[in-house]
Amino acid sequence: MDILETAAYDRRQRRNTYCVLLLSLSPFFLAIAVYFYLWIPDSSPSILAAAIKAAPVISLALLVLSYKGGRSLLGVAGGLIFSAGGDCCLIWPELFLHGMASFALAHLLYSLTFLSTRYSSPSSSSSLSYFFYLLLWLLGGGLYAFLFPFLQKTPDAAALTPGVGVYVALIILMATLAVRTRRPLIMLGSLIFMTSDLTLALQTFKVTEPLEHGRHIVMTTYYLAQLLIAVGDIKAAEGGDEFAKWKKS
Q1: Rounded Cα distance, 178 and 181, in Å
Q2: Percent of the chain beyond pLDDT 90?
Q3: Total H helices, total E strands in the chain
Q4: Residue 152 pLDDT exceeds 60
Q5: Does pLDDT of 125 surpass 70?
């Protein structure tokens, strides 16, 4: 088999792999379709509403487990499971702190995963990377400072104010380590996750009036972020510097 035949064979193998992965994502897309079709109002919290909301993320957790095995329970699959727990908690407003804690644990597991050897890149960080890291932390600090007076007005200010501070630090840490991986799917997923959380925070803490399609924006960006992180984790096993390949393509 010469070089051209080998390259063609590799392309066919990659194409087959992508087709299998796409088919494996069918439960996720079906669960999302059910969620948006039923669109149970926030004013009607129930176990059914919690299950429907968490189903897409649970399907992603099962997919990552099927590819990565039990060890991923301490990584992205575990983070997805904690995220599903957070989804369930946020159905009931009185469980907001519990939901935030679940998502904080999810970000911690994502962060630990992005530090693993599977995500190590042969390329050293450039000055541009360090600038972007700094930008993320300045953005996180600025956002928390902006939210602080609004947090002080909430009934649970004593617990919520430091809790949000810890949460912001963990999601910024996750995003920083995601950028460090130099993997486009992981980087995009982390940044979109931040966008989703920012949209939710502005409405939850009454910084802005509820947006007309605010919940649609939050949930669409949230599910997209989790999808990108899950698929990015599955593809991480391929190795190499994905960012470099992406720039060349």
Answers
A1: 5
A2: 72
A3: 10, 0
A4: yes
A5: no
pLDDT at 191: 97
Q: Which residue is listed with tokens 């035949």?
A: 5
Query: 217, 211 in Cβ contact below 8 A?
Result: yes
Closest CA to 187 of 224, 147, 222, 232: 232
Taking 3-state DSSP, the helix, strand and coil percentages for the chain, each rounded to the nearest 5, stand at 80, 0, 20
Region of 209 (left: φ > 0; alpha: ψ -120 to 50; beta: rest) is beta
**Band of the pLDDT at 7, cuts 50, 70, 90?**
very low
Q: Across residues 214-238, what is the average pLDDT?
A: 93
What does the CA dihedral 134, 137, 139, 144 come to, rounded to 10 degrees?
-160
Tokens of 246: 């992406």
CB proximity list for 154: less than 8 A, separation 6 or greater: 160, 205
Phi first, then psi: what are they for 182, rounded to 5°? Answer: 60, 30
Residues whose CB falls within 8 Å of the CB of residue 62, separated by 6 or more in sequence, listed in order: 27
- Strand, helix or coil at 6? helix
Q: Which residues contact 104 (CB under 8 A, 6 or more apart)?
A: 166, 167, 170
Cα 123 to Cα 241: distance, rounded to the nearest angstrom: 8
Rounded to two decimals, the pTM is 0.89
Residue with more model confidence, 3 or 131: 131
pLDDT at residue 237, rounded to an integer: 64
Query: What is the Rg, in whole angstroms, of the alpha carbon atoms belonging to the chain?
Result: 19
